[in-house]
Amino acid sequence: SQQGEEDPQALSIQEGENATMNCSYKTSINNLQWYRQNSGRGLVHLILIRSNEREKHSGRLRVTLDTSKKSSSLLITASRAADTASYFCATDNNQGGKLIFGQGTELSVKP
Amino acid sequence: DADVTQTPRNRITKTGKRIMLECSQTKGHDRMYWYRQDPGLGLRLIYYSFDVKDINKGEISDGYSVSRQAQAKFSLSLESAIPNQTALYFCATRDSYTGELFFGEGSRLTVL
Question: In A, which residues are within 8 Å of B35 by CB distance?
Answer without folding.
Answer: 101
